[in-house]
Amino acid sequence: MVHILTICTGNICRSPFAERYLQRGFDEIAPGTFTISSAGTDALVGRAMDERSAQRLAHAGGDPEGFVSRQLTESLLGQADFVLALTAAHRARAVALSPRMLKRAFTVREFARVLAAVTADDGGGRLPRGGGSVEERWKALPNLAALKRHGVRAADPAEDDVVDPFTREDTVYDRMVVELLPALHGILAFEAASRS
């Protein structure tokens, strides 16, 4: 089982959108192999998903039902194989809380670029392929990703962040989706391509 933790600030808009969208996608590609969860660095603990984020998630094919926000803790980080943060500041908070996550924490957009680079050179032959080797493939990723991270760095660091729409106008929620979906598609595409 591969466990991915998505994190944002309140854990009601961005990280639940990423959590539920990735879970649906991974369930289609590799049922029962991935567990995606989320938390917030300053979570609005116990809250349901923000209504406008939930509407956009449902429109994109995800299911917001039953979501409950929770606070990011060292214990949650200890259970994660990878952390996908919605901003560089969230990533920094995760690494400060659990330094072992240094090679395992990325922004969502950065991780999609890293996976594309790893796929482009097939991990230098060090990336296990095929449906039966999912855990081995993802265990090999931190070291491979570390080699690719610098080469795919965004020209503007702000390009790694996904805008926070909380309490803002609908256009900001739409922008969140536009910034987030291509990265989520890229992450799912990595696993889909690796299984062939």
UniProtKB/TrEMBL annotation:
The active site is at C8 (nucleophile), R14. The keyword Hydrolase applies. The keyword Hydrolase applies. Keywords: Hydrolase, Protein phosphatase. InterPro entries: LMW_PTPase, Ptyr_pPase, Ptyr_pPase_sf, Tyr_phospatase_low_mol_wt. GO terms for molecular function: protein tyrosine phosphatase activity. Transmembrane segments: none annotated. Residues 2-122 form the Phosphotyrosine protein phosphatase I domain. It comes from the Bacteria. It holds the Pfam family LMWPc. Belongs to the low molecular weight phosphotyrosine protein phosphatase family. This is Low molecular weight phosphatase family protein. It comes from Zafaria cholistanensis.
